[in-house]
Amino acid sequence: MKNFRFTIGNKILGGFITLILIFIVYAGITIFTVSQNSNLTETNSNVIKPSLTGIKDFNLLIIRSKMLVTNWVYLQSNETDKESLKAIHEEEYPAMKEEITALKENWDDEEQRLEMDTVFTEFENLMEVQKEIMGSLVTFEDYEDPIVKFMASESIEREVIPRTDTVIAHLNNILVEKQQESEQYEAEVLDSSNSLRNTSIILGVIFVILGLIGAFWLASSITKPVNYIKDIIVKLGKGILPENNERKFGNDEIGEMAVAVGQLVDGLKDTSYFAENIGNGKYDSDYEPLSEEDVLGNALINMRGNLRKVAEEDKKRNWSTEGLAMFGDILRKNNDNIALLSDDIISNLVKYTKSNQGGIFVINREDDDDPFLELTACYAWDKKKYLEQKIYEGEGLTGQAWLESETIYMTEVPQDYVMITSGLGEANPNSILIVPLKVNEEIYGIIELASFNEFAEHEREFVEKIAENIASTISSVKINERTSKLLEESREMTEQMRSQEEEMRQNMEELQATQEEMERSQREREDKEKIINYTNMMIELDGSFYINSINNITSDKLGYSSSDLNGSELSKIVESKDVLKSMKSSLESGKTWSGVIKLKNKTGELVNAQFSCGPLSGQDSGGSSYLLIGAIVSNEELT
Predict the structure, then answer these.
(1) Angle at which helices 161-217 and 49-74 pack, to 10 degrees?
(2) Cα–Cα distance, 348 to 324 (Å, whole number)
(3) pLDDT tens-place string over residues 24-83
(4) Which terminus of the chain is less hemmed in, N or C, by CB atoms within 10 Å?
């Protein structure tokens, strides 16, 4: 005994022996408890739980059969439900009965097994009733037969539904009892587990006490490696990353600590290298945090993500800014010709947005009552599709964008909408972007882009901004073109006026002589009209032969004032209806008429008048006004 040294190894050996003995006791208790719980769990899992599942499935099958046989009666054309009901009779129920019967053999309660047999018998009797219904309603004539249909309906109400409810009630009784059995088994397993937990707590306390004693005993053997680890940690606290000297430790907790510290040093070196790369803008550098709880590593990864996001946003802004500047130059270069402007815009826009094809449409308002979109430029577009074609407001997607004044973006493109064609073949695009050229709420045209790739949000916003600038430029170009056209027309008119000025001067004297002749003729015509007006009766009629006016001679001869006859029918003063009808017929056909008309004066006396009448010149074809000129004649003059 004098040579015996109670070294750390002996201490560890004694501690292990003690722990092993405690572990053996704990293991025996655990094995017994686990074995008991295993038996209970196995019975519950292999018998009771499957039985519960089978009974529930059987319950659903019964309910389904009731529903399906009801549909058999009331839904003649529902072949799917009929096939499902046949499947229950021929396949599902036999298989389910076989499954439940196999489980039933392991039930402890004899009454449950007998009740289950009763359920099978009742359901099979119910199935016989269902088969009778199924056999009575097979053909279309069976469903049209009111007696057969009524008997089947009565069987549903009097037999199927009550029997189904009875079977389900019996089955629910078994289900409740099995549920109670399952809960009882689970309660026993829980009690056993609680006992094992209490035992584990007691043994755990013993382990802790022995561990504390062993810790004090092993203090001297732990000091050296701990001091090594301390030195490394102190250096880390000063920001120094020491070199790994590959020092070896035992394969125990202290060794694991040393390894962990070495891994920490290596991880910090990787972290510093990763942080340096982030500082240099290398956001694609690979880095793995030391663990999921590595606060510094995860913070650096989040920082990289945020910086990458900021860089991407800057890239998008720079892309948009450069594009706006580039298209600003394009719009300034071609601001006097829409065709050249459109061609330059669409070719550069397709390339800049990395689209595959595009087109620009401008509204043609030459006819204000019939505005339409016309293709002014395209890039890799099926131009034949739009050649000499007008797109009106609301027509197709392009016309709809015009109508709604809103951008249309599609990622599910119809197969026949447009094809992207190359020398190797053609394919349907994956996205279509249609943007109205709008400024101050007025639409000047439409831009349409097609691409195999989807347009990002910042690309769509960029195209909308460009569209506004294009619309403003198109507005200016149209004004410039209109101004140029007016100036050209003005120059042409000036030249024409210059060439005609001499001719006008030469014709001036002739025009003056002609004017004097016309004035002389006008005076003669007016004198003749006065003579006729003062010596003859004159009556002016409208297109419906109502009197518009009479002259003074007519008023004197008939005794009527102008107010008496204006607006009255001519028949008011004409005695002979046949003569009036003949005159109307000639005048309505555009001919003149002459003849004697018997007129009634204001006192009712008849006077004879010789009249000539015809349409007034300068009126619409067909005559809308007529003039009668005549004089009173005596009976002797008529004979």
Answers:
(1) 150
(2) 12
(3) 777 777 777 777 667 667 766 777 788 888 888 888 888 888 888 888 888 877 788 888
(4) N
